[in-house]
Structure formats: structure tokens, C-alpha cells
Amino acid sequence: MTLEETMIKMTFDRWNALLKQFNTALESLTDEQLQHEISPGRNRGIYLLGHLTAVHDSMVTLLDLGERLYPEMQEIFINKPDKSVPEIPSAADLRQKWQHVGNVLDEAFANMQPSDWFQKHTAVTAEDFAGEPYRNKLNIIVTRASHLAYHLGQFILIK
Amino acid sequence: MTLEETMIKMTFDRWNALLKQFNTALESLTDEQLQHEISPGRNRGIYLLGHLTAVHDSMVTLLDLGERLYPEMQEIFINKPDKSVPEIPSAADLRQKWQHVGNVLDEAFANMQPSDWFQKHTAVTAEDFAGEPYRNKLNIIVTRASHLAYHLGQFILIK
């Protein structure tokens, strides 16, 4: 196991464990429960599901894997806070989109070589990357895993 | 910047950013607010503060940096759930302990060399580590950063 492979394993063990925990929590909730707030006056489950779907969808472009699947979700679930958009996708629709984004990422990751993960992501210039090699593709997984953990801690509060 | 240094930077950028966010949230709360629950019927802020202090304290031994500072916190804040122990340390006491553990870790980390982070932690045998090099000290930071992010997402819900 090379040092690159070791670091990729460490990062993806976390990423995959968090996704598994999130999916277990998601499957345990009904569509009706997803309408509940994580805590009084805070985000609803359905908003967090849409938010995570939109953020993970944006990884497709950040990792240079193609085009975003649901660019329209950016406005509803990232730019705007919960309860500020009158009509949002249904829970059933968001469950499908969440799963689809996850599948697309998994398939693309399976085709990547270890060294690919240490190449620059698309939000950094080649010039900046030369001096800041940590702004690589693997770091997108590191930061999004942290983001996922943050919202997972909230998501499991839904009753 | 070597590959080792790149990975250490990626990991510690997350760890330090999460600690900073947590400390900002902690400073914004009064001792009285720390008695509030993150969501009705869930953990109180004071329990999460004690829990994170105890978990980070346990990193001292896992990373082979010495003895735990507050071993008695294991029982109250890790083994037992919130509201099951009649007497727990005060908010003021826990704030001090949290800061002390953070300082001890920071000082010890400053004395470590990049290659030290890729040595085994104390909860894996040399035999197992030979085939599982990802069970290294840096991975303790990776997993505890994920744990911190999870509880940070909850901690910021306290009003």
C-alpha cells in the first residue's frame, strides 16, 4: 500500500461510513417525518436532504467528472435558507435525486486512479495549485465528509 | 511540500477549523444556556462539552503522548448517556478542562515530525499495522475531526 493509497483509504473510509449512517437514518424516516424540524425553528429534514444532494451534486464539477445533474437545486438548497422558497421538490423526488447523485459519484470514483486524487480540483488555478498542493481532489472528499458529518449529527435528531 | 506534509495539512486544516467553530459557538453561550438541550429530549450542551473533552482527552493515550488528564470523565461523558449521572462537573469547570485538553494536544502536536503521523497509534498491534498502515496517528485526527463535526452540527442548535 503506497502512501497515496493509505491516505485515500483513510479519507474514503470516513466518507463511506458517514454516507452509510446517513442512509440508514434516511431510510428510517417517513416522508412525513422529513417535514419535521431537527430542532424547533431550525431546518427541516427535507431541506437537509436537498442541501446535501445539491452539495454532493456540485462535487461532480469540482472533481471534473462532468456536468451537475441538478443545477437548479443550488438556488433552493444552497443559496436560500429553508422555508424561504414556496415550492420545493417532494421528499420522494429528493430521495431519488440523492441516490442518483451518490451512484454517479461512486461510479466515477471507481474509475479514478490513486494519483488522480492528488491533482487539482476545478476551483483552483494551476498557478495557485503549484504552491498549494493540498487543494487537490481528495481534499474535496475531506471537506465534504466534514460537511456531511455536521449535518448527519442534526439529521439523526428528527423524530 | 512532501506528500506526507500535504496530507497532514489537509487533515489539520479541517481539525483546526472545526475546533475554531466549536470554540466560537461555546464562547457565545452562557453557562445557563449550556444546560439547554440541543433538541427536545436530546443531549444538553454541557453533556456535549464534557463528551468532546473526554474523547479528545483519550487522544493523548491513543497518540502515545502521555497519560489522560481526566480519566474519570470517561465514565460520565462516554460510557453513560446524558442525565443518567446525578452530579456532573459544572459548566465553568468543563470549559477549563476543554481548553486545557486542547492546549496539551496542540503543544504535543507541535513537537511531532511529519513521519510520526504515519506511525501506528496505540490501539493497533504492530502485527496488524503491518498490513493496515492506515491505522496510523493521523487517522485518529481524521476520525476525531469527523466526530467533532457531527457534534458541532448539534451544538450550534443550542439557544
From TrEMBL, chains A, B:
Protein name: DinB family protein
Gene3D superfamilies associated with the record: dinb family like domain (1.20.120.450)
Source species, domain of life: Bacteria
SUPFAM superfamilies named among the record's database cross-references: DinB/YfiT-like putative metalloenzymes
Positions of the DinB-like domain: 20-154
UniProt-listed Pfam families: DinB_2
Species for this entry: Flavobacterium pallidum
